[in-house]
Each structure stands twice: as C-alpha cells, then as structure tokens.
Design goal:
Chain lengths: 255, 306
Amino acid sequence: MRINFRAIGAIYRFEMARTFRTILQSIASPVISTTLYFIVFGSAIGKHMSAVNGVSYGAFIVPGLTMLTVLQQSVANASFGIYFPRFVGTIYEVLSAPVSYFEILVGYVGAATTKAMMVGTIILLTSCFFVPLHVDHPFWMIGFLLLTSLSFSLLGFIIGIWADGFVKLQLIPLLIITPLAFLGGAFYSIKMLPPLWQKISMANPVVYLISGFRWSFYERSDVSVQTSLLMISLFLAICILIVARIFKTGYRLKT
Amino acid sequence: MNPIIEVSHLNKIYAGGFQALKDVSLQIDKGEIFALLGPNGAGKTTLIHIICGIVNRTSGEVLVDGHDIIRDYRYTRSLIGLVPQELATDQFETVWNIVRFSRGIFDQPKNPAYLESVLKNLALWEKRKNKIMTLSGGMKRRVMIAKALAHEPQILFLDEPTAGVDVELRKSMWEQVRRLRESGVTIILTTHYIEEAEELADRIGVINHGELIVTEDKSRLMKKLGKKELNLELKAPLKAIPEALSGYQLKLSPDGLVLTLAYDSTHNESGITELLDRLKENGVSYKDIYTKQSSLEEIFVQLVHQ
C-alpha cells in the first residue's frame, strides 16, 4: 500500500506550526495553570495532608494533574485541528488532495498527540521544582502518556468532526471530559472513597488512565496495571472504530 | 482532441432529496479552456466538487485522464488544481507556508524554485512572508490560484475566479489564465461574468437546474444561437413600416427613427442589399447604418429562460 508521507508531513508540520504560532495558548497556558495547582494543592495545602499510599500528597497528585492536562490538551488540540479547516472552508484542499483518510488522521491526530505529549512532559519537568519526583517505570510512564494522548486525540478528532459550531466543540470537553478527569482520582485515591462511590468510579475510564500512569511513578495504583492497559486499549479501539465509521460514510466531511 | 475529463450520466442527489445534477454527460479536451455557465444553484460547483473528490456522486462515472476518480483517486486528484469560490485560507499563516503546504499535501517534493516562480508570476513574491490576513482581497484571490498551482496540476478548476475583483486585476488574471493554457494546462472555469467566458473560453457549457443544456464551441454557439441585427438610423421618422417592406422582418423603434432587421449571417442571402434597394425605391432615406451581434450574455439569458 502506497502512503502519501509528504501529505502526512504537510498536515503535521502545519498543525505544529499553529502550536508554535500560538505558543501562549498551546503550551504556556496549560503549564501555568498546572503550576498553580502544584502551588495550591502540592505546596500550600499538600503540606498539611497526610501521605497517600505512602507517597507525599504533593508527589501523589503529579501523575493525576499531568493526566488531567494531557486529556484536556489532546481533546482540545485534535478537535480544533480538524474543526478549524471545516469552519473556515480550507478542508476542501485536504479532501481534494491525493490523500487517504488514514493519512489525514495520522497528520492531525499525530500533531495533537505530539502537542499533548509535549505539554505533559513540560508539566512533569515543572513539577520537579515543587515536589520530589521519581519514576519507577519510565518506559511504562511514556507508554501510558502516549496511549492516553493518542486515544484522547482520536476522541478530539471525532468531536471536531461531529461539532457544527464552537459551542458543540466545547460541550463534551467541558461537560464530560473535565468532570470525568476531576473525578478520576487526579487529587485522591479511589480507595479513599466510600465503597459505593468506589464502585461507581470504576465506570469512569479516566480512573484507569490515572491509576496506570501513577503506578509507573510509584508502583501504587487503584486498579491493577493490566486492567488499566486493557481499558486504555479498549477505549483506543472504540475511538478507532468510530473514526473508521466516520471515514467510511464521509460523515460531516463529504456530502 | 483527447478528452482529459469524461463525465457520463452523472447524478447527484443530496441527503435532503435535492437533485443538484441530472444525468450530466460532458467531455473536456486536453488543453482547452472550458467555461461552465449557469445561474446560482444550477449545479456548477457540485459538478466541480464531484470531479475534485470533495462531494460524493450518487451515480454515473467520472474519468480524469482515463482513470476513475474513485478507484484511482490518488492519480486523478494529483492532476487537478482547484481555485474555490470562497477565499478559504488560514488567515494566520504566511503566503509561503500556505503554498508550501499545498504542494506537500499533493505529494510533490519540495521545490522552492518552482514556488518562487508561481508567486512571482502572480505578483505575490514580495508578499511571501506576509500573513494572509494582511493581504487585500485581490491578493488573497491570487494566493488561492498560487495554492492551486503549487503542485503543478494539468487541470485547473477556477470556480468564480474573478468574483469581487476589480477590472484591472480581472484582466491581469485573464492573462494568467491564457499563459497557463499556453503551458498546456486544461482550464475549466465557472463565472457569472459572461464577458469573461466570451473573452477566454474555447467552449461553453450551460447548466441550469442540474441539467447541461448545451455544450458548444464558443464561436459556433454564438453563430448558432446569436442573432445579428442591421440597424438603420433614418433621416426622418416613420409613423409605420411601409406596406412595400412588409415581407421583411423589420422592427421600428418607438420614436420611428430606427429600423431594425434581424438576419442570419450564416446564410449567403441575408436580404440586406435588397432591403436597401427597396428603402430607396420607397423614399426612405437613412443617415447611418450599423450591425449588432447578440452577446454571449444575451444567448445565455435566452438559454436559461427557455
């Protein structure tokens, strides 16, 4: 099968150029807001909190906060990346080019994943200034970060195709992703919840992402790492199936 | 001539049930300038978008250089450049990055020298580092052309290329189009400026309500459907056409000062000499005489209102 690598590269570079053109919103903004979380929850309040699963509270929230931002950034970047050309009409060029849907996807989602990974890495580096941080399994840490960025970028891509206005573009990230991320154990261990809420929390996919990611740092998790991996893979597979369906039908792309 | 685009029995019905194209069949020859005319909503853009791959066809076949646009989409799309109606570009990017993106997405290797020549030909080279948002409307329109040419297409679709462009720029764009044709590019343009089609096109297609009413060589179309008129400015007004001239298809202007004869210039016997003799015999004298041919615009209006 022939792949139009130049087209993938062109879309990827174009999207990355947008990131660097809007570096304040793309990178500086999430880093600043996460730094504020570290200052408030990590350094200020964290000093008065007891250790969670043997990890100081400030260090405990680092994986959760990183994941929280990575989720939001993946969705925001990928959804805007595909929605913007639809909104301004430049999508005509992508659709009339000798490029397959798969290549379009790799270009847009690849760029969104890269941006989310960049932001995640910068946040982790920033956290070193506030809390003592160590990573027990760096390979798994990168793996979880990559899988999460990729699957939520795919979700963002789906949202960007589905949305027919800026309101809809913000709807799912604001009403679903952010609450799920906050209730997914970013600031606490699920085991700290009453039994009923522990069970309810298991329906939240973000719990598995944060738990797996946190395990790669401290070998402490709310669910087993295998379960986390399985759930992320399942989520990724569902997103791929939806994207495949969108491409097959040309939903919101071709009339 | 070799057809570079062959459209056969093409139909397009949108999801809401609106039929935008009805059994359209059309051939476009390599190296020609083909003007597709039609009122708003006639189906021009839908036809172009189907050929370019932006809109799905409902039924029918479209071949570009002998290749099916679905089966061999990579090949067919690589031959085509499209200048859309709307000025759809990323306003925050520079001219250079925009055209470089267009070349890359069409799977062409980097060629800064070629892009430089495209921008220079379109008088955009000096603006290459400018963001699109800082350019005038005419320049943006030229950027759209530069984008379409960035991958060295053999076929160029110009969908309303000079809409909203001033007369001077329009004429310079016509020159561009001619130069492109000379370099071997096949050009298909849609326009509302009939004058533009009259000026540029080799062949004309008229589409209305999704149906292709006519496709014809421009000069043949004008001869076939155009009327020629002989106008005689009279020295003294006539109250009515003299009885002796009733055998001619004459019209008298309301002020009685102009006699008009509609005639067919393709016939050897137009009847003009005979008419002039008869006028003299009947004492009708004239101070001026001139002929007028129907414009393409008049033919177009006549066709779409049939």
